[in-house]
Amino acid sequence: MTAQVEDHGLLRFLTCGSVDDGKSTLIGRLLFDTKTILADTLSAIAKTSEKRGLGAVDLSLLTDGLQAEREQGITIDVAYRYFSTGTRKYIIADAPGHEQYTRNMVTAASTANLAIILIDARKGVLTQTRRHSKLASLVGIPHLIVAINKMDLADYSQETYERIKGEYLEFAAKVGIEDIRFIPLSALNGDMIVDRGDKLNWYEGPTLLEMLEVAPAAHTEHTEKFRFPVQYVCRPQDSANPELHDYRGFMGRVEAGSIKVGDAVTVLPSGRESTVKAVQIGGIDIGEAFCEQSITLLLADEIDTSRGDMIVKSNEVPAAVKQIEATVCWMAEAPMDRARTYLIRHTTRDSKAKLAAIDHRLDVNTLEKVPAEKLAMNDIAQVTFKLAQPLFADPYLENRGAGAFIIIDESNNNTVGAGMIL
Amino acid sequence: MTQRSTLSHLDWLEAEAIHIMREVAGQCSNPVLLFSGGKDSICMLRLAEKAFRPGKFPFPLMHIDTGHNYKEVVAFRDKRAAELGERLIVRSVEDSMARGTVVLKHEGESRNKHQSVTLLEAIEEFGFDACIGGARRDEEKARAKERIFSFRDEFGQWDPKNQRPELWSLYNARSHKGENIRAFPISNWTEMDVWQYIERENLELPSIYFAHTRPVVMRQGAIVPVNVPLVSGEVANPSRAGEEIIDLQVRFRTVGDISCTAPVESDADTVEKIVLETATTTITERGATRLDDQTSDASMEQRKKEGYF
């Protein structure tokens, strides 16, 4: 690892809201004010704005990627945008806000560590606001910024801001969302995004970008158990090189926790124990490794290990489960068929799975639990699966990497659902 | 509390790319890594080294050669593959032309988009079930919406409205025979990240990435290199009657088929200077240098639907 001064790593966040809330404008503004948008891109969207008869350059045009989106003026799919402040790199997952796109928001949220929930100051907390917040919390996003936007259309009124903030806090307490920050904005005019502007002087908190610059990155906030799913086994079997002749490297990414030479480990499912002989990247010893690093582990003993196995510390062995309870988001056009067998992919391990029970469905608008017989596209439900193979699972909210899974339909190989183990 | 400081952004991007390459190797039975000798694919080779050394790469390298590539880049491509001791497959658009599967509208037509045909022919010839490529989401609007593991049907087509959901880092590379997965390990990298990585890893590049003097003409506001000598001994991009040829100090930000990549005026002759220039540039990489993307707002999306990378 290179020690880089002034590198605060990378933050992935998502923006929730519809075009009407000014979400695209907000993203456009962030990119524009951090000087990420370059002259030719700007001139292209200026041309389009003019063609559509708009008075000013429409920054929301920056996020419409596909032909159909540009033609219809809508966002269909999650788009990823990038900007950097020099000290931190950002990846924005931009998910469309319409109701039928729950699956897009879950997708965008799955890799994010922070969510910006946009509220139109003229409209306050809407059903959609509650839906987005609930989804963000279900997908385990630890930090929320509630951005009360379009303050320019609400006379930059502190009273309006405070009223909406109160409304939101009341709702958040019910849902159990903890770390929430609030900020008043005008994405259109650029107030409180990167620059403070001069209309919101009553607000003394940090700007949006200042909040993002200090937000914790994933995995830095609490101690985690070491989880290392084996992706690939390296056996060069190079008879010309005696050192490589017996080389057996277990390659993977540290999904949680840390590991160093000498640590006692257990390989699952065999349960065999050994100690770590070396921790490497590209054949070079690095001694120890941390969460999110892709490494190679060498063990002191020869243990038969292959893709799909998991290496853990011997004093932190997870349970092997053949039945899981999970929150599932269904993502396919065809509803889930209770009679069928699906494939569950959890870490690097696959298992056939059958639905055992649907405990309840979550009505994403009322946030009430309702009984359900089937799961259709965009449904979110709490279910129980029976598994053909044991999985080594952690609760999702404790460890995303070892608590998440996808559901695959083997007939067409599509990913049809996403699950979070309870 | 905290177990460690945060990974630097380059370390994070590197770890993600290694993870993706290993997923391809773990999930697919016959993958290939596309290597052109360009800067992005040079980074890909370093990432593959970090992912798989001390073992061999679990895939060969392949280049789809339009026959209109810069000599310096072709030489670099061969040298780099040899240094790594990895197998390099080269398939040529000119062979597809000879077979009649590629027909140019006119002799001067860019061969860039025709690479798709040759690529699909090579996929079929070798039975590849996955191609690993160095495309980045920041390059172009359609790419910003493409998955890291992107499914292509039997005709190599990308269907942007019918993509597989992709969550966490759980990738689905399953495909039936004849179908194909395109995997993009550096999806989340920007042009700046690539240059910073080249600087940090001290990666060697073909000489034309650095400032040099070459004959160019100005066509529709773009700097167009002319009379470029090819490996075959022929000359690409002949200047046209009445054009004024000037010797200009330029460098390439992106390198591809000669007919569609233009250089930028620059005196940056080291990676360090290029990083600086990249930080202060006012034009996007493709905007400055890709003559093929300017045809229409959707030209990349269109090409991808037809099987392009």
Key structural traits:
heterodimer, A: 422 residues, 6-stranded mixed beta sheet, 6-stranded antiparallel barrel, 8 helices, 34% strand, B: 309 residues, alpha/beta
In short:
The complex is a heterodimer of chains A (422) and B (309). With 422 residues, chain A is of the alpha+beta class. Chain A is built from eight helices and 22 strands.
Task: Tell me the layout of helices and strands.
The complex is a heterodimer of chains A (about 425) and B (about 300).
Chain A: E1 10-16, H1 23-33, H2 39-51, H3 67-72, E2 79-84, E3 89-94, H4 102-110, E4 114-120, H5 127-138, E5 143-149, H6 158-175, E6 179-184, H7 208-214, E7 227-234, H8 242-245, E8 249-253, E9 258-260, E10 264-268, E11 272-281, E12 284-285, E13 288-290, E14 294-299, E15 310-313, E16 320-330, E17 341-346, E18 349-362, E19 369-370, E20 380-392, E21 404-409, E22 414-421
Parallel strand pairs in A: 1-3, 1-4, 4-5, 5-6
Antiparallel strand pairs in A: 2-3, 7-8, 7-15, 8-14, 9-13, 10-11, 10-15, 11-12, 11-14, 16-20, 16-22, 17-18, 17-21, 18-19, 18-20, 21-22
Chain B: H1 9-27, E1 31-34, H2 39-52, E2 61-65, H3 71-84, E3 88-92, H4 93-99, H5 115-126, E4 130-132, E5 149-152, E6 180-183, H6 191-201, E7 212-219, E8 222-225, E9 228-229, E10 235-236, E11 246-251, E12 264-265, H7 271-280, H8 285-289, H9 299-305
Parallel strand pairs in B: 1-2, 1-4, 2-3, 4-6
Antiparallel strand pairs in B: 5-6, 7-8, 7-11, 9-10, 11-12
Helix pairs in contact in B: 1-2, 2-6, 6-7
Number of strands of chain A: 22
> What is the H/E order of chain A?
EHHHEEHEHEHEHEHEEEEEEEEEEEEEEE
Distance between the termini of chain B: 44 Å
Largest sheet of chain B: 6 strands, mixed
List the chains of the largest interface with their residue counts. A-B, 81 and 68 residues
User: How much helix, percentage-wise, in residues of chain B?
Assistant: 25-40%
Report the radius of gyration of chain B as a whole number of Å. 19 Å
Give the end-to-end Cα distance of chain A, rounded to a whole number of Å: 34 Å
Mean pLDDT of chain B: 89
Strand content of chain B: 15-25%
